[in-house]
Design a protein that fits this description.
By secondary structure, the protein is mostly helical. It contains eight helices and two strands, in the order αβαβαααααα.
């Protein structure tokens, strides 16, 4: 943004459009590509959520749910997915969407929390997000690079010209949905979901 933002509503509107539009395009590509996947064996050192050649869908809650929807009975719990090129495009779009929604600094996610909660609270949320992602990288090493990038990014966002006006309820709800989208992309799937996925996607002998 080359010019100052007039108010927090304008800041929110500009920031929310990109991630949501990208997700709307990405989601059908990913679902279609998952339905045309290639089976592969999990390596001894399993890949992570950033490894498209041996993707374990359980490393992401959203990917686990989409796999449950798209893969039917085609793969077992001890196998990984070698992504179809269309799914790879959707997968990369999903990763970019998640990175952009990180509530830090001048990323779209940082703008969103700034517009929703004000600049001071957004700085606190950004610091918490940095350390939470660093902690998550101890479980899922693929996020370590993300955590390092976030720690090198400025934590503050430029204030709007009118930085005291609050958002309406519709924008607040939309902002919470966008942040929830970030969580389900990067959060590993709970065991009860992965167990259900394993039950539903068994390999035919």
């Amino acid at each position: 943004m080359r010019s100052p933002v007039p108010n927090r509503k304008a800041l929110f509107d500009v920031s929310i459009v990109g991630p949501l539009a990208g997700f709307v395009v990405t989601l059908p590509l990913l679902i279609w590509g998952l339905a045309h996947f290639y089976r592969c064996t999990l390596p001894e050192q399993p890949g992570n959520v950033l490894d498209p050649d041996a993707l374990n869908p359980n490393y992401s809650l959203l990917l686990a749910l989409l796999s449950k929807l798209a893969l039917s009975d085609s793969v077992t719990a001890d196998q990984a997915i070698d992504l179809h090129p269309v799914a790879l495009a959707g997968f990369l779009g999903l990763i970019v969407t998640a990175l952009n929604l990180m509530p830090v600094g001048q990323l779209d996610g940082g703008h969103i929390v700034h517009a929703m909660f004000g600049q001071r609270t957004a700085i606190v949320i950004g610091q918490i997000a940095r350390f939470l992602l660093l902690g998550l990288s101890l479980i899922q090493s693929g996020f370590l690079v993300w955590a390092i990038i976030l720690f090198f990014m400025p934590i503050t966002d430029e204030p709007a010209l009118n930085d005291v006006s609050e958002l309406d309820n519709k924008r607040d709800i939309l902002g919470l949905l966008a942040l929830s989208l970030l969580v389900i992309i990067i959060l590993p799937a709970p065991k009860f979901i992965t167990r259900n996925v394993a039950d539903l996607i068994r390999l035919e002998v």
